[in-house]
Amino acid sequence: MKQHVVSALVENRAGTLSRVSGLFSRRGFNIDSLTVGETEDSSVSRMTIAVTGADSVLEQIIKQLSKLVDVIAVRELDSSSCVRREILLVKVDADEKTRPAVLEVATIFRSRVIDVSPSTITIEATGDIDKLNGLLLLLRPYGVLELARTGLVALERGAGVLSLPSVLSVSN
Asked: In what helix (H) or strand (E) does residue 113 lie, and over which residues does it extend?
């Protein structure tokens, strides 16, 4: 089983998220990450869904998603042809002795320090999953006190665009 990333344009209205996520759960797919936000058109949202499962089952899910009334367009994004990012906020135990080392790790990963207290440092990092996991691996020995991740967002590289069908985009 491998991780798949599905990108979907959906109508921005109540119940859409429930119907889309329900389709995955009915098929036994655990959603690793689900990120939803408005597009340049406020009536349309983009969903980025990261799931782990068999290729054949994912193919069926994409076909079934395409049939949902709220789904405008959907496709899997191949890892080699898309840009993937996630934001991580992590609060680390950092006293006078460990603070320089924690700051050095943050610098190596091109992260930003967004809050400092006498005993903690909060770091913001943006990047692919491997980069963020690497940062966490190096910060854990200092004591990760709190952690929040946004979930994956992804766009196809180059000129490829998941867009509204021309009939819909003209009428909006």
From this structure: strand 112-116
Whether residue 65 lies inside any domain: the answer is yes
- Ordered per-residue pLDDT tens for the chain, 172 residues: 788 899 999 999 999 999 998 888 887 778 889 999 999 999 999 999 998 888 887 888 899 899 999 999 999 998 888 899 999 999 999 999 999 999 999 999 999 999 999 999 999 999 999 999 999 999 999 999 999 999 999 998 988 888 766 544 444 4
For residue 114, give its domain range: 83-149
Residues 68 and 42 in one domain: yes
Q: How many domains does the chain have?
A: 2
Is 0.70 surpassed by the pTM of this model? yes
